Amino acid sequence: MHCLIDDEGHYIKVHTIIASGEATVVVQRDDVAIKMAIVYKHYTLERVEDNREKIRREQEVWRRIQLNFDTPVEGIVHCLDLPGDTIEMRYMSGGTLSKWLKHRVRPSIELQKRWFRQLAIGLHNLHQRRVIHGDILSRNILLDGSSNVVIADLGASSVMPIDTVMADVVDDYNCSIWTDLCQLGLVFYEIVTGKQTGISLYHGSGSDESVAVFPPRDRFPTLGTRIWARDIIETCWKQGGYGAVGVAGILAKLDEKQGPR
After folding, report:
1. What interhelical angle do 248-256 and 109-128 show, nearest 10?
2. Which burial class, exposed, middle or buried, applies to 132 when counting CB atoms under 10 A from its CB (0-12, 13-18, 19+)?
3. Could you tell me which Pfam families the record lists for this protein (predicted)?
4. Pairing of strands 95-96, 131-132
5. Local structure of 143: helix, strand or coil
6. Between residues 150 and 260, which one has the greater pLDDT?
7. This prediction's pTM
8. Which residue, 173, 196, 193, 172, is CA-closest to 183?
9. What is the pLDDT of residues 76-125, one digit of tens each?
10. Residue 36, φ and ψ in degrees, nearest 5
């Protein structure tokens, strides 16, 4: 059995692993979650360097988003430090939103609205800093012990020039604020209904599955009239639907829905 090696050359204990992907792994150490490159003893130096380069790329995203490690950005998981080829973040004891929705009762309307607002604020803060997330999924959203949600996993994110007009730009993978909003709408749908749609931006009709494609409306599920967030979700699923205001349009709609139902 092969054992993962951390950034200091020590073997990683399996029970400390929180999450792992193709190139990176997240390990818990006390109240800190540390993201690092996947390294096995049998890996070539080239493969190790490729994985570490993915961490360095994500570090650049964090440097754009969070200028001061002492002050978290609202709606985004708190980055504590970027030592070496690692990313240290606040450990979120509530786990992923995906697991929460699978193993808990349906969240109340009040909690749904709170999550909508927290996620919209987080995505708005990313876009304000000229960052496209590119992978807004329920498994990339974390909860703390008080059931507050934050956006995490910036490994697929792109940093755009600071003077970019975000409504008009796409990154190298055809991701944009509109594909981010589309994915956020899918997360909203999952929160409200408890169902996953199985829709991916990367399973379009083209041959290159690394390029995002905004799906046509007929690929999305029909929204019943009794869904309180129907108009919010529908607008997310319409490319350019929120116009120049972007994610701020969701916050405006949530403000309209405050008060007695």
Report:
1. 150
2. buried
3. Pkinase
4. unpaired
5. strand
6. 150
7. 0.94
8. 196
9. 999 999 999 999 999 999 999 999 999 999 999 999 999 999 999 999 99
10. -145, 170
SS3 of 107, please? Answer: coil
Place of tokens 């200028």: 67
pLDDT digits (tens, 9 = 90+) for 155-164: 999 999 999 9
Instruction: Return the structure tokens found at 226.
Output: 């009794």
**Which residues are CB-neighbours of 68 under 8 A, at least 6 positions away?**
none
- Give the per-residue pLDDT at 146: 97
Residues 6+ apart with CB under 8 A from 218: none
Instruction: Supply the DSSP symbol for 31.
Output: T
Task: Indicate the helix (H) or strand (E) that contains 25.
Answer: strand 24-29
Helices marked H in the chain — which ranges? 45-65, 97-103, 109-128, 177-193, 230-236, 248-256
* Helix or strand run (H / E) with residue 81: strand 79-81
The answer to whether 172 and 122 have CB atoms below 8 angstroms apart is no
Structure tokens at 190: 């999952």
**How many Å separate Cα 251 from the centre of its chain?**
18
Q: What are phi and psi of 131, to 5 degrees?
A: -120, 130
Residue pointed to by tokens 């990339």: 140
Helix ranges restricted to H, 129-229 = 177-193
Q: Which pLDDT value is given to residue 258?
A: 77
Q: In the structure encoding, which two tokens stand for residue 126, read together?
A: 């990313």
